[in-house]
Amino acid sequence: MNQLFSINRELRDIEDPQLQQREYYIKKIQVSYNYDRKNAEKVYELMQVQAVEAMWGTTCGAIAAYKVRPF
User: Fold this and answer.
1) Which of 50, 28, 49 is nearest to 37 (CA)?
2) Are 40 and 29 in contact (CB under 8 A)?
3) Cβ atoms within 10 Å of 11's Cβ, excluding its own
4) How many domains does the chain have?
5) 39-69 CB burial, b ≥16 within 10 A, e <16
6) Mean pLDDT, 10 residues at a time, over the chain (71 residues)?
7) Which domain holds residue 51?
8) Do the beta carbons of residue 50 and residue 62 sit within 8 Å?
9) Model's pTM, two decimal places?
10) For an engineered disulfide with 29, which of 6, 8, 40, 49 has Cβ 3.0 to 4.6 Å away?
């Protein structure tokens, strides 16, 4: 947990909020699962793909439910 606090202090220097968030999650994956940087980036990208797939599935399900509801 102390490692995450020190990482948070390092990330304060990054100006771009999106880049700061990306670095935060990559560092968190590194510390939590003991991955190296390369594998932590792969896990982060996989998490993003899964989030998009979940949103796409939710959207398609909501549209299908809206269309079928009158039956």
Assistant:
1) 28
2) yes
3) 14
4) 1
5) ebbeebeeeeeeeeeeeeeeeeeeeeeeeee
6) 76 88 92 94 97 98 92 68
7) 2-68
8) no
9) 0.79
10) 40
